[in-house]
Amino acid sequence: QAQLVESGGGLVQAGGSLTLSCAASGLTFSSWTMHWFRQAPGKEREFVATITWSSSTIYSDSVKGRFTISRDNAKNTVYLQMNSLKPEDTAVYYCKTSAYWGQGTQVTVSS
User: Fold this and answer.
1) Reduced to 3 states, what is the DSSP secondary structure of residue 20?
2) Per-residue pLDDT tens for 58-95?
């Protein structure tokens, strides 16, 4: 059974930066495509970024140029570096692979 545990969320001012981490266990991490999603209050969960097993990346238009997804296969961890944060980035951020989701980590950006 795969398990994903996110960390690194918090409160930051607009224009600031945060780095989220997602530690994976119970799977052959290096073989799996990993994703970040987010869900703001009252809104549907939305795609943020993807990194494939070969480290190809895809970003939503709303975060392209500001966020960077990366992975460390030795640590079974995927990261989301978030720069130039905006109040509209406030959401619970989730890590996902295949059918597995983490529990989420809250990011709040104050104006």
Assistant:
1) strand
2) 999 999 999 999 999 999 999 999 999 999 999 999 99
